[in-house]
Design brief:
The complex is a heterodimer of chains A (about 650) and B (about 150). Chain A has 26 helices and 20 strands. With about 650 residues, chain A is α/β, with parallel strands linked by helices. In chain A, the strands form six sheets. Chain A has a five-stranded mixed beta sheet, with helices on one face. In chain A, strands 13-12-16-14-15 form a five-stranded mixed beta sheet. Chain A has a four-stranded parallel beta sheet with strand order 8-7-6-9, sandwiched between helices. Chain A is globular, with a radius of gyration of 28 Å. Chain B is an alpha+beta fold. The chains are: A alpha/beta (about 650), B alpha+beta (about 150). Bound molecules: flavin mononucleotide (FMN), iron/sulfur cluster and FE2/S2 (inorganic) cluster. Flavin mononucleotide (FMN) binds near residues 211, 236, 359, 362 and 548 of chain A.
């Protein structure tokens, strides 16, 4: 029987009997729990592709062809270990699936040679998957006991990097879409809203609004048409968890969307994906076509009387379009500028109709809640925040990638236990949480736990879940300047305080990271005046902006000033950047013992700050130096040094 | 075969505001940028003043109004890359190509764009040339990378 017919008749049908031996076996085969031929899995999310997964894919296929080995090659999503990509997993019949890191194309041959001789190579082994049906490999750790995975609790990412994201059968074989059918067959929409309300799920897009309440509001508004929008804009620089969910498990998101749409009474859903996410867009498009094929999209789905349609929208790139009302404007073909609230979108949203907007991660939690019940979800996390949260760890962390932890886990555990601390043995300086609307936390605040109110109390937010680890080589003034620059570019321009204020803050920060060569008395005065104004300016921007972008814009600056005041003062008074990042503030000197007087630096210096005779040691006149660093770069004798 | 402007426009219903952005996106995919004619024609089709169409298009980062170069350089300016010195990388690329970000060289060979996170934070700083990623680049490598492309034309 062909796969689709089997799944529809024996698994998804009303009177399907899932306890039948043959069904159980067939499903195990579909989700690769049992395999008859070897299977090679290649991590091919965007992060894998960047690291060379495509070449690995070609090399694996070539190897199998040359050696005449019959095997299946599956391209999976990201398991979260982005810094170890390309990851290759191999599963031999009867043996546990075993995972290898950093398998670039030139390593493929040795790896496969070893494995097909049932030997475990000593290099690049990551671990093996735990499955009762399989024989374990000797001396290979279990993957879920690795420090990276041990403290994680995977609800949303459970199948990312494990299951085949290209196949709807794989998803159904893991129990997928059965929850959706259970909902539309047995539950009223009101009941689903109640279940989600009881589960205590709060929005993962940043605001932390109770999801059940938001749905109820839309549910209770009377209208001939309602909409659901899935917010996959994710334009925060340094966040990539939504993309990983879409690439690694697109059907999980789609099932969440389908259930939500039914619960609020929407027959039409939109998914708003950033244009740069080309692979995510492709995966969603493919998954939606599979849904159509199986009959989950259209009229009277599975004879339940429910209609459902999904439209994919490509977001044309603007950070502010992640804001819900701006997103609505963008779908309507207008400029992506936020609208005043109220009216809330749940009452009057897209085309004036009640609209619920939820983040990808929020929606990806829905199938779990309805499958296992609200109480089970309630057991995970802490009272103020139930469930788990996915974080994208990047920056100077030892392991960069995705982690999913129960709410209430301390930031210290995430950074040091899961992500392995700071790389290259450097000292930890700060962690930036929540992207451009978030804030930096110093080492003394690492025991804060992730949640909503628990972080707000320290002026931080969970935001969308970017976590950027910074080491001693990072300059906090520079980071604040970076975020202000981002925000002043991305401000939509509707509110003057946000548009001009962020720009002014950026200017002030530019001024204190610039060397005051040839500055007149008036300019010095202006510079100091700017610094004195920073706090007031921030307050005005925060209080008088319309949307979240403006209201939170001063956060990166204020938190940096709060925790790293000494660094700001050093920049302002001593004109010094201890991390050596603010280029113009660098001071150089020439080591007289090393300088042989080759005149290379003297010739190149743009401000004639270097003096000296040929074959005699040179000197730098500090007053004239503009800190460009050219002398540092051109000196072949390492005689130019940083003060 | 390149689809003509008419053909792309005819895929969308006339006068439907909702279609404006998808339509502009389709045109950009086909031609690489939006020229004056495209903006005028889209305005007529959607029944919006072309000034408004242009205004909306400039609001979004995605739309370009000049042709991309034969080699399109994208330098990542996301947070992670910034911490690994992507600003200096961008300045160096600007210097070697003799272009500013957002520009296309006069001979149409090179264009340069600064983008936010490309999803390769683990191997920062990164740059992308015509879809091919260069990871963990150092300033010293840039001249060599660019010379490689210079010599391939
Ligand atoms: C400037 C700005 C950017 C935002 N960007 C995103 C985003 O990229 N993704 C997202 O899901 N929510 C984003 N939000 C939050 C949304 O406005 C909205 O609160 C969220 O999508 C609601 O979904 P939730 O209830 O599931 O969290 C942003 C908000 C602001 C103010
Ligand atoms: S706060 Fe800024 S981004 Fe938000 S509406 Fe006002 S100007 Fe636009
Ligand atoms: S910040 Fe450059 S790839 Fe993510």
């Amino acid at each position: 029987m062909d796969e689709k017919k089997f799944l529809i008749e024996k698994v998804l049908a009303v009177k399907a009997d899932l306890t039948q031996r043959e069904v159980i076996d067939a499903l195990a085969l579909l989700r690769h729990d049992t395999v008859n031929i070897p299977v090679v899995y290649i991590g091919s999310g965007t992060c894998g592709k960047v690291a060379g997964a495509n070449d690995t894919f070609v090399a694996v296929n070539r190897y199998l062809e040359e050696k005449n080995i019959k095997a299946e090659v599956v391209q999976v999503g990201c398991i979260g270990l982005c810094s170890y990509e390309p990851l290759v997993d191999i599963q031999l019949p009867g043996k546990a699936r075993i995972s290898f890191k950093s398998i670039t194309h030139e390593r493929v041959e040795t790896l496969l040679d070893d494995i097909f001789n049932s030997e475990v190579p000593t290099e690049n082994v990551l671990g093996q998957f735990n499955n009762k049906r399989h024989n374990r490999w000797n001396n290979v750790p279990l993957i879920n006991e690795l420090p990276f995975f041990r403290l994680q609790h995977r609800v949303v990412l459970a199948n990312c990097g494990v299951s085949n994201p290209d196949s709807i059968s794989d998803y159904i074989a893991r129990g997928g879409y059965q929850t959706y059918l259970k909902c539309i067959r047995n539950y009223t929409s009101e009941k689903i809203c109640n279940i989600v309300d009881q589960s205590g799920l709060r929005g993962r897009g940043g605001g932390g609004y109770l999801t059940g309440e938001k749905w109820m509001m839309a549910h209770n508004t009377v209208s001939d048409q309602k909409y659901l929008i899935c917010n996959a804009a994710e334009s925060d620089p340094g966040a990539f968890m939504d993309r990983a969910v879409i690439e690694g498990d697109p059907h999980l998101l789609l099932e969440g969307i389908a259930i939500t749409a039914y619960a609020i009474g929407a027959t039409k859903a939109y998914i708003y994906v950033m244009d740069e996410y080309s692979q995510a867009y492709f995966m969603l498009n493919q998954a939606i076509n599979q849904l159509k094929d199986f009959g989950f999209i259209g009229y009277n789905i599975f004879e339940s009387g429910v209609d459902f349609k999904i439209t994919l929208v490509k977001g044309p790139g603007a950070f502010v379009c992640g804001e819900e009302t701006a997103l609505i404007n963008s779908i309507e073909g207008k400029r992506g500028m936020p609208r005043p609230k109220p009216p809330y979108p749940a009452i009057e949203g897209l085309f004036g109709k009640p609209t619920v907007i939820n983040n990808v991660e929020t929606l990806a939690n829905i199938p779990f809640i309805l499958r296992h019940g609200p109480l089970h979800f309630n057991e995970i996390g802490i009272p103020e925040a139930r469930g788990t949260k996915v974080f994208a760890i990047s920056g100077k962390a030892m392991i960069t990638g995705l982690v999913e932890v129960p709410m209430g886990t301390s930031i210290r555990d995430i950074i040091f236990k899961i992500a392995g601390g700071v790389k290259d043995g450097k000292d930890f300086k700060a962690v930036q949480i929540g992207g451009p609307s978030g804030s930096c936390l110093p080492a003394s605040q690492l025991d804060l736990t992730v949640g909503y109110e628990s972080l707000w109390s320290e002026g931080a937010i969970i935001g969308s879940g970017g976590m950027i680890v910074m080491d001693e080589d990072t300059c906090m003034v520079d980071i604040a300047k970076f975020f202000m620059n981002f925000l002043q570019k991305e401000s939509c321009g509707k509110c003057i305080p946000c548009r001009e204020g962020t720009r002014r803050i950026h200017e002030i920060l530019e001024n204190i990271t610039r060397r005051p060569t040839g500055e007149s008395g008036f300019e010095v005065l202006e510079r100091f005046k700017g610094i004195i104004q920073l706090a007031d300016l921030s307050e005005v921007i925060r209080d008088t902006s319309l949307c979240g972008l403006g209201q939170t814009a001063p956060n990166p600056l204020l938190s940096a000033m709060k925790w790293f005041r000494d660094e700001f003062e050093e920049h302002v008074f001593d004109r010094k950047c201890r991390a050596g990042v603010c280029k113009e503030l660098r001071l150089f000197y020439i080591d007289v013992d090393k300088c042989i007087g080759c005149v290379a630096c003297l010739r190149k210096c743009p401000s004639n700050a270097i003096v000296g005779q040929p074959r005699q040691p040179h000197f730098i006149i500090e007053e004239k130096c503009i800190g460009c660093g050219i002398c540092f770069d051109v000196c072949k004798f390492v005689a130019v040094k940083l003060k | 075969m390149q689809a003509s402007l008419d053909e792309i426009i005819s895929r969308y219903k006339a006068g439907s505001r909702e279609s404006l952005l998808p339509l502009l996106q389709d045109i950009q995919i086909e031609f690489g940028y939006l020229n004056e004619e495209a903006i005028l024609r889209v305005g007529q089709h959607i029944k919006l003043p072309s000034s408004k169409v242009y205004g909306i298009a400039t609001f979004y980062d995605q739309f370009r109004f000049v042709q991309k170069g034969k080699f399109h350089f994208k330098v990542c300016r996301g947070t992670s890359c910034h911490m690994h010195g992507s600003l200096s990388i961008l300045r160096e690329v600007e210097r070697v190509l003799n272009l500013k970000e957002g520009q296309t060289s006069r001979d149409g060979r090179f264009s340069l764009e600064a983008v936010s996170c490309m999803g390769a934070c683990g191997s920062a700083p990164v740059m992308n040339v015509n879809g091919e990623f260069k990871t963990a680049i150092a300033i010293q490598d840039i001249a060599q990378i660019i010379n490689f492309y210079r010599s391939t034309i």
